[in-house]
C-alpha cells in the first residue's frame, strides 16, 4: 500500500512538472505597436516591459522589440529551477533609458529581488542610480547587456547567491560614487563574473567583490578606472584569473588588482599594465591587510607606476602566499616588494620562478617602508632578475633588520644597477643566501655575496628577444643548491634562475620512435607495440612519459597521446623541457 501511494505521488509530481512546462509561454513587448491591454502575443504585443514583469510565470519569456523604454522593471515573482523567467532583448537597439527617472540607492532600471531570472541583451543608459540592482536575488543570469552612463554601479548585487554576470559591457559607471564599482558585488555567495568589459569608471572601481565568498572573476577587461580595475575585500575563496587590467588607478588611490583581507585566493594568468597616475598606489597586483592562503602566479605585470607585485601586511597578519612564475618588467619601482607598512606580521611567503627585468628600482625588495615590522619565513628562490635598479637599487635587496628566517637561494641576478644582492648587516644573521649567480656591480650601501656564490655571464639565450633561458655552457647550469629539494624537473642538480636547461634526451614527449617528429601515427603504433606486444622500448624513455607523471609507457601515457592526436587536447602533451 505504501508503494502504491509513493507511486501516485511521483505520478502527480510528474504531471505537475509536465503541465508547468507545457504552460511556459513566450510573450512580446513593442514600444511602437504594443498595448498593455493586448494578450502579449507576437501579433498583439504589450507596450511596456514593466507590464510583462508583472505577468510572467516560471518558465515564461518575454522578447522585447527595438525601441526606447523609459521605465523601471521589477519582476513580480521568481522562476523555478529549470524554469527561469527570461527578459530578452531582440537586437542591439532595445534601450532602457533612465532619463528623468530618479532612483533610490536600492533601485535600478532593472530592480531584481526575485530568483531564477535571465536578463539578456538590453542597452541600459542614463541612470540616476544603478543600471541593474539585485538584492536577495538567487540564481540570476545577467548576460550580454550594455550599461552606460550611470551615477552609481552599472550592476550592483547585495546578499545574492548563485549569480552569473557574463558578456556585459559597461561604460561610464560610478560617475558620482567613488566608493563603489561598475560591477559591484557585496555579501554574495557563488558569483561568476566572466568575459565582461568595463571601461571609463570616473570615480570608482572596475569590478569589486566585498564580503563575498566563492567568487570567480575570469577573462574580463577593465580600462581607465579611477580606482583598481579588479578588487576583492574581506572575502573568501576568490579566483581572479585571465583578466586584462589597463589604466587602473587613473586618479585615485589603488592598484591594478587589489586584494585586502582575502582568505584562500588565486590571482593567476592576468595581465596588468599601463596604469594611470593616481596620487597613491600604482602597483600591478597588491595582496595586503590580512590576505592569507593564496597564490599569485603566471601573471604579466608591466609598464606600471610602482611595483609589479606587492605583498604588504599593512594592518593585519598576512601569511602563506606563494608568488611564482610571474613576469614583471618596466616598472617605475620594484618588480616584487614585500613590506609591512603599518603594524602587522608578514610571514610564510614563497617567491620563486619569477622573471623580473628592466625595472627602475629593485628586482625583489624586502622593504623598510613606514612602520617596518616583522617579516618571517620568507623564501626567495629560483628567480631570474636582469637590468633592474636602473635609477636606484639593484637586484635583490633586504633593507630591513626586522626579519626572521629569510632564504635567498638559486637566484640569477645579472646586470643590475648598483648591486646584485644587498642585505644590511643587521639582518645577515637571519638571512641564508647561497648558490646565487651574481653578474654585475656589487656597490651600494650593503652589498653582500652570501655563500657559495657563482660569478659569471649567465649566457642568456637572447636578451634582446627577452629569452632569458640558459644557453649550453652557462655557469648557472647544474650550479644550484645540491639539496634534492632543489632538483630540476629532469632530475639533475638544480640550475640557477627561473628557467632550467633541459638535459633530457628528447624534445617532444610522444616522439616514442625517436624520429624527431610527431607525435604521429608511427609513434602511436610504436607505443602500443612497446606496451602490449613486446616491442622495443623507446631509445629515450622520457619521450614515453607523455603525461609527465614520472612513469613511462603506461595506460595514462597512451590516453594522453590519443587525446592529443585525435581530440585536440593541447594540454595533454607536455614538452620534455617543461619548467616545474
How would you explain this protein's 3D organization?
This protein has five helices and 47 strands. With 580 residues, the protein is mainly β. The chain has a 27-stranded parallel β-sheet that branches. Strands 3-5-8-11-14-17-20-22-25-29-32-35-38-41-44-45 form a 16-stranded parallel β-sheet, with no helix packed on it. Strands 23-26 form a two-stranded parallel ribbon. Strand 46 (460-462) and strand 47 (467-470) form a beta hairpin. Helix 3 (521-532) runs antiparallel to helix 5 (555-567). The longest helix is centred in the first third of the chain and has 22 residues, at 2-23.
The tally of beta strands, per DSSP, is: 47
Mean pLDDT: 90
- Radius of gyration from CA coordinates: 29 Å
Q: Please state the structural category.
A: mainly beta
List the total number of helices.
5
- Which percent band covers the strand fraction? 35-45%
**Which range best describes the helical content: under 10%, 10-25%, 25-40%, 40-55%, 55-70% or over 70%?**
10-25%
Describe the main β-sheet briefly: 27 strands, parallel
What are the segments in which pLDDT stays under 50 over at least 5 consecutive residues? 1-22
* Shape assignment: globular
Q: What is the end-to-end distance?
A: 64 Å
Amino acid at each position: 500500500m505504501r508503494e502504491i501511494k509513493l507511486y501516485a505521488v511521483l505520478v502527480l509530481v510528474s504531471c505537475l512538472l509536465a503541465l508547468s512546462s507545457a504552460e511556459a509561454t513566450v510573450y512580446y513587448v513593442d514600444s511602437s505597436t504594443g498595448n498593455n491591454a493586448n494578450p502579449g502575443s507576437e501579433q498583439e504585443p504589450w507596450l511596456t516591459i514593466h507590464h510583462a514583469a508583472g505577468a510572467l510565470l516560471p518558465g515564461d519569456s518575454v522578447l522585447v522589440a527595438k525601441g526606447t523604454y523609459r521605465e523601471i522593471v521589477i519582476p513580480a515573482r521568481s522562476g523555478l529551477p529549470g524554469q527561469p523567467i527570461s527578459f530578452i532583448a531582440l537586437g542591439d537597439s532595445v534601450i532602457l533609458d533612465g532619463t528623468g527617472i530618479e532612483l533610490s540607492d536600492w533601485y535600478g532600471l532593472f530592480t531584481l529581488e526575485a530568483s531564477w531570472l535571465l536578463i539578456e541583451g538590453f542597452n541600459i543608459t542614463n541612470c540616476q542610480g544603478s543600471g541593474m540592482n539585485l538584492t536577495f536575488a538567487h540564481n540570476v543570469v545577467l548576460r550580454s547587456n550594455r550599461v552606460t552612463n550611470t551615477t552609481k554601479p552599472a550592476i550592483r548585487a547585495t546578499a545574492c547567491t548563485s549569480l552569473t554576470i557574463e558578456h556585459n559591457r559597461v561604460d561610464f559607471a560610478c560617475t558620482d560614487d567613488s566608493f563603489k564599482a561598475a560591477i559591484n558585488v557585496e555579501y554574495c555567495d557563488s558569483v561568476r563574473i566572466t568575459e565582461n568589459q568595463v571601461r571609463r569608471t570616473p570615480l570608482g572601481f572596475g569590478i569589486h567583490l566585498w564580503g563575498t565568498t566563492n567568487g570567480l572573476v575570469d577573462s574580463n577587461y577593465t580600462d581607465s578606472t579611477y580606482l583598481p580595475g579588479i578588487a576583492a575585500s574581506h572575502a573568501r575563496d576568490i579566483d581572479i584569473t585571465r583578466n586584462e587590467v589597463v589604466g587602473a588607478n587613473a586618479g585615485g588611490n589603488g592598484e591594478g588588482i587589489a586584494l585586502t583581507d582575502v582568505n584562500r585566493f588565486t590571482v593567476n594568468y592576468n595581465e596588468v599594465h599601463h596604469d594611470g597616475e593616481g596620487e597613491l598606489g600604482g602597483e600591478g597586483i597588491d595582496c595586503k591587510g590580512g590576505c592569507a592562503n593564496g597564490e599569485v602566479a603566471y601573471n604579466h605585470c608591466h609598464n606600471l607606476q610602482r611595483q609589479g607585485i606587492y605583498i604588504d601586511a599593512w594592518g593585519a597578519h598576512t601569511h602563506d602566499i606563494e608568488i611564482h612564475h610571474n613576469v614583471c618588467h618596466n616598472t617605475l619601482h620594484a618588480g616584487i616588494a614585500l613590506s609591512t607598512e603599518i603594524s602587522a606580521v608578514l610571514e610564510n611567503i614563497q617567491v620563486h620562478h619569477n622573471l623580473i627585468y628592466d625595472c627602475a628600482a629593485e628586482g625583489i625588495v624586502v622593504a623598510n617602508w613606514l612602520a617596518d615590522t616583522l617579516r618571517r619565513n620568507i623564501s626567495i628562490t629560483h628567480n631570474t632578475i636582469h637590468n633592474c635598479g636602473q635609477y636606484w637599487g639593484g637586484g635583490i635587496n633586504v633593507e630591513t633588520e626586522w626579519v626572521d628566517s629569510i632564504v635567498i637561494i638559486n637566484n640569477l641576478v645579472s646586470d643590475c644597477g648598483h648591486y646584485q644582492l644587498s642585505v644590511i648587516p643587521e639582518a645577515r644573521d637571519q638571512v641564508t643566501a647561497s648558490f646565487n649567480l651574481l653578474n654585475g656591480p656589487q656597490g651600494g650601501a650593503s652589498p653582500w655575496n652570501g655563500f657559495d656564490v657563482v660569478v659569471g655571464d649567465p649566457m642568456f639565450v637572447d636578451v634582446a628577444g627577452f629569452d632569458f633561458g640558459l644557453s649550453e655552457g652557462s655557469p648557472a647550469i647544474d650550479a644550484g643548491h645540491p639539496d634534492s629539494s632543489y632538483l630540476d624537473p629532469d632530475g639533475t642538480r638544480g640550475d640557477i634562475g627561473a628557467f632550467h636547461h633541459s638535459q633530457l634526451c628528447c624534445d617532444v614527449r610522444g616522439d616514442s620512435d625517436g624520429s624527431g617528429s610527431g607525435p604521429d601515427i608511427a609513434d602511436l603504433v610504436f607505443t602500443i607495440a612497446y606496451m602490449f606486444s613486446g616491442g622495443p622500448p623507446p631509445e629515450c624513455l622520457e619521450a614515453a612519459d607523455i603525461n609527465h607523471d614520472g612513469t613511462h609507457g603506461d595506460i595514462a601515457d597512451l590516453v594522453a597521446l590519443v587525446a592529443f592526436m585525435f581530440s585536440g587536447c593541447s594540454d595533454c602533451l607536455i614538452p620534455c623541457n617543461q619548467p616545474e
